[in-house]
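S.,

As promised, the iron/sulfur cluster run. Input:
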Amino acid sequence: MQIDEIFLSLQGETEFVGIPFLFVRFSGCNLRCSYCDTPAAFTISPTCHIHFHGQESFLSNPLSIEQLTTLLSPYQGYWLSFTGGEPLLQREALETCLTHLKGFRFWMETNGTLPEALSPIIFSHIDVWSMDLKLPSAIGKNLWETQERFFSRIAETGKTIILKVILTPTTTLEEMEEVWKHFLLWREKTRSLSLTFQPMTSEKKVIQSESLRWAYEKTLSWPDGKVHLIPQIHPILQIP
Ligand code: SF4
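Predicted complex:
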């Protein structure tokens, strides 16, 4: 498996923010979002960067499941996030991880654009799906139809799904209305659904935008605690 980075940090996004998480960052991504903060994951790195508690080391790619098990087994009981890049690009490696790593709660961080890569093994092991909503202003094309298919498949599992949308200065109010329309429609398919508005953060500051103000008002209007407005905390806390 081609892994860019393995580290222990805090969950920096969604309503799980602040909880310790192991992160396994898969190399490679099928998108090129304008706001991407992990461009290193676009390409296959010859080495995997490992950092726990300020101690760092490197292993040559590809990693074996035995190497990964040895590295991660002292952390059983933690949440383990598969992130990227896009982990579903390496479906077989992901399935190997899910069937061999024991004692973790699994979190899938996905751009939600590869419905054909989903499989029964993945469905049965992932506890929480964190699915980005990819807007045309950020990726240069409309992927709603693909994201709809992806969502419909993961909704059938009944697992927790968190939709996340990044707010940038180029996000339009029409796009925000589209996000909201999909959130309301998709709630009909599963009640285990929440939505996080995440304003972009740069140089420790949240970037102001009309979509941020729109999201603030929308969050205030929603009483059941399933809609959140949360900035990225990693750059603010200056942690990995
Ligand atoms: S999907 Fe994620 S990793 Fe890929 S380009 Fe977009 S933000 Fe970056």
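Residues 3-237 form a domain with the TIM Barrel fold (CATH 3.20.20.70). Residues 195 and 227 are 5 Å apart (CA to CA).

- D.
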